[in-house]
Amino acid sequence: MERETDGPRPGGPAAFGKAVELRLLSRLLEEGFEVYVPLVDEGVDAVVRWGDGAFLPLQIKATSRRARPEDAGLFAAIRFRAGCWYLLYAEALDTLWLLSAEELEALASRSRRGRGAGQRHVQLAGYRRDAEGRPRLLERGRAYVAHDLSRLREASAGAWGHGRRCHGKEVRP
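Structure (tokenized):
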């Protein structure tokens, strides 16, 4: 998913986030998932279905290659939703992580100060650099690197079916 240009991004951070979201959703479609995108964004970017009709709510977060190297794998202001899945993409590393809400919550910390005080965040890469000068992956996140989307496929195959609730809201395409 590497980008070719280094020029300014039209539309700013919101456009970047939406572009990554659309690229990842197209990847899900290419891998055989049915993807349903809600008209109103209430913390679920898509509901995906694999095979037998099981639905999984999905939240997508991304960090730009323009982020400070120590923040390359920092995903902030995350709102946890039971039963949801999270795709986290670090553009600077061209790395994608796939975590369930329970896995993400176990790795997350609470911000103590600043603009996001009281909110949760997770750091999966950064702090130090590797031999090539790129931010390095942290050991705690290596198990969740998504080389493919088989974990999501497996979760959907054994997941709950129609009419499941996620964070108090009905999840249906």
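The chain has one domain: 12-171. Residues 160-168 have pLDDT under 50 and may be disordered.
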